[in-house]
Amino acid sequence: MDNDKPEECKVCFNNYDEELRRPHTLLCGHTFCSQCIEGTIKNAQLTCPSCRAEHSATDATQFPINYAMEAVIKKLRSIQVASVGTVSAKCGQDRTRDIRKKLQSLAQEHKSSISNLISECEEALSQLSKYQGQVRDWKIQHHQLQDRLYDLLEQNKAAVELLEQEDTSVLTMTTEGEAGKKQLQTMLETLNTVNTAQEVFTTIDEADHYNVEVEDWMKKCQELFPDVNTVYTSVKVQETIKKALDTITTETGATAATVLQGDSTTTIMEKVKIIIGESPPETLTIDHLRGMSESIKRLVEAGLVFGVQQDQDDLRYSRITLQDGQLYLHVLQHQPLPTHAHTIQVSEVLEALDHSSTLVFLDLAWPGSLARHRSLARAGSLAGSNRLHIQLSGNTTLGRQFVLLCTGQHSGSSYLNTKLLEVENKGRPAECVYGGDYQYNNGKGGAPLLSHQDDQQYQKSVSAGAVGSPWSPGSHRSAQFYISTRDLTGSRHWCRVFGKVVKGLDVVRAAVNHSDITEVTVVDCGVVLTL
Question: What is the pTM of this model?
Answer without folding.
Answer: 0.50
